[in-house]
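Student: Hello, beginner here. Can you help me understand the protein record under this note? Any guidance would be welcome.
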Amino acid sequence: MTLYFDAAAVLFQVYPSGNGRWEDRLWLNVPGPVYGAETDNCATGRLEAPRHIHYGGQYFTEYVYRQPRTPGEVRDVLSAIEAEPMDGYAWDGDQRWTPELVREWWRDRERILEYLRDQVHEWERYDRWIPNQRAVEGALDFAAYIAGGTDSGCLETDLQIYLYWLQERRSPTPADRLPEL
């Protein structure tokens, strides 16, 4: 049994040119292979991948708050990517994230939690505008994922597994020791 699912390999098979605008990625993107950078704000991402995509930043653009970990989750994220007309998604994060950047992002998680708390009124408005978005639900899910876990896992553990992947370029097994954040 392996702990890391290589979503980027699957995405590169479908779209070999998954290089994006790393410097334009939204700071809320969770470290991993897939990220949003200058996406549209047409509110399509959550309709396609509600357990992975959320909206935020200055222009309420799309970002990845949970990396895909199964072929089915990759299909959902791929649907969000295909629905996004600005070509703002990329899946070259494994070549961009370093262990130091992942740890820095994790250290700054309180800023993200504060942002999620402060923006609830915006997502409530979004949910009234487009009821199927469930934007408040997504923000609460992201906050719970950061804070220690949901039924879909714990971000701290997922980031430790991702750090192992970045350092070793292979998935850890349950017997391997995960790096510290």
In short: The chain has a mean pLDDT of 92.
